[in-house]
Amino acid sequence: MASGGLQLLGFVMAFLGWIGIIISTAMPQWKMASYAGDNIVTAQALYEGLWMSCAMQSTGQIQCKVYDSLLKLEGSLQATRALMVASILLGLVGMFVAVTGMKCMKCMEDDQVKKMRMAVFGGVIFIISGLAALVATSWYGNRVARAFYDPFTPVNTRFEFGSALFIGWAASSLALLGGSFLCCSCPRRETSYPPTRGYPKNASSTGKDYV
């Protein structure tokens, strides 16, 4: 029962992490314009994401523009896109595989060994998915930080971390923890020893040996 509860907890955490990765990928707030310079302009807020750039006016109106061409984008942005999309697809596969191996599901009840292996395999896929998202968000955040502290970057073109990065970091951590719990939910096999056979008691010796 303890392993079943750990398995369910791991699946819920991994599923929530996968949903967070999808939300982070779709959000345009991967980086936001910084107003740390002398000339503070609050008329609009600028955001940039993986798929579009947006400008929010002081009135609350948001205008977004999808990137025109994929070939004109930076290679690092394309790699970040690919990692996040791969993370989403891996999470989808891991979800179906883990559901098959869940103890609360009736499929594959005849072979409990294969059922447990499916749950562990689903956990491994979730771990890979979380690692892909963690690498993508950390890489993107590192680029934003390096450009911010670069003295050759103009003050009015500096960006800070957006909310999508923080959601991505939290979601990837959930996917990693959930996948780890799924891998640890498989109960260890106890070594079974053959039953000891009792030896018959020797008949009471009469003190005489018969040949």
From TrEMBL:
Annotated TM spans: 7-27, 79-99, 119-141, 161-184
Primary localization class, coarse: other
CC terms in the record's Gene Ontology section: bicellular tight junction; plasma membrane
Organism domain of life: Eukaryota
InterPro entries named among the record's database cross-references: Claudin, Claudin1, Claudin_CS, PMP22/EMP/MP20/Claudin
Parts forming coiled coils: none
Signal peptide: none
Compartments reported by the entry: Cell junction, Tight junction; Cell membrane
GO molecular function: structural molecule activity
The keyword rRNA-binding is assigned to this record: no
Record keywords: Cell junction, Cell membrane, Membrane, Tight junction, Transmembrane, Transmembrane helix
Family: Belongs to the claudin family.
Purpose: Claudins function as major constituents of the tight junction complexes that regulate the permeability of epithelia.
Protein name, entry field: Claudin
Organism of this sequence: Chloropsis hardwickii
Classification lineage: Eukaryota, Metazoa, Chordata, Craniata, Vertebrata
Record gene name: Cldn1
